[in-house]
Write a structure and sequence with these properties.
Elements: E1 7-11, H1 19-32, E2 37-42, H2 46-56, E3 61-63, H3 65-68, H4 73-80, E4 86-90, H5 103-106, H6 108-115, E5 119-124, H7 131-142, E6 148-156, H8 159-171, E7 176-181, H9 197-200, H10 204-220, H11 223-231, E8 264-270, E9 273-274, H12 278-286, E10 290-294, E11 306-311, H13 320-325, H14 327-338, E12 343-346, H15 349-353, E13 356-357, E14 360-361, E15 369-385, E16 397-409, E17 418-419, E18 428-430, E19 433-436, E20 439-440, H16 447-456
Amino acid sequence: MMTVVPRLVLSAPSSGHGKNALAIGLLAALADRGLEVAGFKVGPDQVDAAYLGLATGRAGRNLDPRLVGTERLAPLLAHGAAGTGLAVVQGSMGLYDSLTGRCETESTAAVATALRSPVVLVIDVAAMGQSVAALVHGFRAYDEQLWIGGVILNRVASARHEALLREALDDIGVPVYGALRRQDLPPVLPARRHGVMPVLAGGGEASRAVRRLGEAVAATVDLERLLGMARSAPPLTAQPWSPEPPAGADGVPAGRPSGAERPIVAVAGGPGGSFGHAEVTELLRAAGAEVVTLDPFVDEGLPAGTRALVIGGALPESYAEQLSANRRLCIAVAELARTGRPVVAEGAGLLWLAREVDGLPMCGVLDAIGSIRDGMVVGYREATAQSDSVIVSRGEVVVGHKEHRAVLAPRSGQRSAWSWPGGTPEGFVWRGVHASQLVPHWAAYPQFAARLVAAAATDPTSPQASPANPQPGPASPPAGPANPQPGPANPQPGLVNPQPGPASPAAGPVGPPAGPGSSQSGPVSPRSGPTAGQSPEPVSP
């Protein structure tokens, strides 16, 4: 099957050349002209993808060969760009760089090759003259299979400087599609620490920033010539990815049982989208769920009839205080988990389910305490499922990405979610809860959504809803402060199980913990460190 998708990849010699602002501005400028456009980000960065989506008016998506496999890149692009006149793929780091050093399969150049797409290099020329030609020639000669279609010059000093640069590039036959002065791309995007929140919250600051970048690009870049090059890309030979489960596919459950009502699955997000990949919501709907957005910062309760909750990995750690302040919703989430309904949390979603983070009370579903540190844990993990849960079967292997500053003590519960070489088990599995800081891409594992919807459509008290390795459930003490009285510590990491009740902004943690498998029914004091034999994940550079 041949799929026509006009497309280009925007890359740079390294980070810091302005390709992020250029990609957002290019999409905004074309969208302002009435062209339907789609934005994609190479790698796991959901923040950049969110801003690309804001510029286009449709979901920004990630194309990560490590998370989804090279064979899914073209299908995912074709799916996400369906009905558009242009797909812009924003690269990661330098053109030939990759987070893992596997440049031949995971770099922006490798993605461009897999997509058979032309590449436009964004080059910061503030301190460069004729050497720009040598630089571009080197990038072009490094991989002769790669199609470098031209350049956009950023931070040009003057008209004379621009003429010098254009002449040098003309000598080697490289087109220049635009030249921006040093002041043309101001740092207008909200601070990175806010993550995707400015986009998802639907506020004006992010929209104004995107519009400003679009105006700058429209005034300095030859959009028609760029479109002409993008339209010369050959048709994609891959069939577009589809969230619909393939008929008769082994290992992919049917999702909602025949004749059952569509279960309501709440997905954490805001007016501008969810905290997970766009494909998660699509997969859940295809599996038979009615997907409803839950705003963890605004909504004080779960949507009526909620049968499951999904918290995506882009929930920012820096908003722990705001999450804590919504006590009524914390109690509702804890009650949903207590009843055995599916609750899947990725990334900082795990923190929201914890007892507390840096002294701030959270939902209290997990008997764990989080702390946010200065160093960043970042990298891919090839993880093996350690327990059967609502989305995985024990022994399944997935690839996920971790990017967080927070650590939890203990690192895992009695039933951990994942393990990987060189690390201790991580995450929590309890009743319908599956929580971990690992963020896989569900497009590579559509069975996650099918299993979750099947569990959501099933009464958690029925025999078919029982977990493969059941554990005794926690006791249910009344809601109260985290440490109402001293008591012996729980010998195993467990889960808190607060009762629903009235809350106030000043309310403390939902309730004291009594972990599954524990013989205690009384309160315990909060942990101040890891359980014996477990330790927080070391912070990597």
